[in-house]
Amino acid sequence: MWHAIVPGVLLLVGVGRAEATLTTPTCLAKKLNEWGALRKCQATEDAKRLLGKPAHPATCQTRFDTKLATLSEQAKTAAVPCRFEANGNGTVTDYDTGLQWEQKTADGSVHDLGNEYTWSVTLGRRDGTVFADFLGTLNDATSSDGTTSSGCFAGHCDWRLPSIVELQAIVDAGAPGCGSRGVCLDQTVFGPTIAFFYWSATTETDFPVFAWGVAFGAEGQVTSAIEDATLFARAVRSAL
Fold first, then answer.
1. What is the pLDDT of residues 95-144, one digit of tens each?
2. In a domain, 225, yes or no
3. Same domain flag for 200 and 136
4. Are residues 76 and 112 both part of a single domain?
5. Dihedrals phi, psi of 113, to nearest 5 degrees
6. What span, in angstroms and rounded, lies between the C-alpha atoms of 204 and 18?
7. pLDDT confidence bin for 15, thresholds 50/70/90
């Protein structure tokens, strides 16, 4: 009886492990669930604060960071991508940072990779074409009744320039050609990209007429440029 059961038990275990093999969709779904758990935890802790009770919101972020790191390590072991998802509407979601990025195109639209913009016309002010023309177009909403709106890019009207930290976080040193004047970015995810400087929303502390950016064709180097220079831009918004 015992010898007859053991092989069957081993077989069932093996099947269970095969079914539990990590894939990109299952890994991304797990990360999305963790974002939900993070927001729920933060709301619970904030409610405690409002009621005058001891609250520990930092524990929510710590748990989340640990969970995401574990999932990323499991994906690395399984050799499956587990960070970005192309949404099919010209955007890509980053499940590690919770950001939604604009994908670039080569179609002559506002998303065209060849479009260049100034950060500032009057140095030190956010009055350049990257704000007026680029972000202005993405966030250009219309309304027929004064209560609802439409027309914004991918259904959202809160597109902005990324901070320098956010922009640097998408640099991919493993992208084909990176280090040899190629683009240090996964273009299969983010779309065609110029191997040059992209604006961030962050200005230099000591020289506020300069804004920081990332040179995606120079190994993802962080550098700065005078704000009336005509350079490239990619939009982002907080999504998760």
1. 999 999 999 999 999 999 999 999 999 998 999 999 999 999 999 998 88
2. yes
3. yes
4. no
5. -65, -20
6. 52
7. very low
211 pLDDT band, cuts 50/70/90, is: very high
**In this structure, what token pair is assigned to residue 149?**
């709106």
Q: Structurally, how many domains does the chain consist of?
A: 2
Identify the DSSP state of 104: P
In a domain, 95, yes or no: no
Q: Is there a single domain that holds both residue 56 and residue 130?
A: no
The residue behind tokens 């190629």 is: 182
- Nearest-angstrom CA–CA distance, 159 and 236: 6
Residue closest to 239 by CA, chosen among 31, 25, 46, 27: 31
Same domain, residue pair 204 and 148: yes
Q: Are residues 170 and 226 in the same domain?
A: yes
Distance set, CA 142 to CA 135, 149, 209 (Å): 15, 5, 34
Amino acid at 165: V
Q: Tell me what pLDDT residue 237 has.
A: 98
Q: What is the pLDDT of residue 35?
A: 98
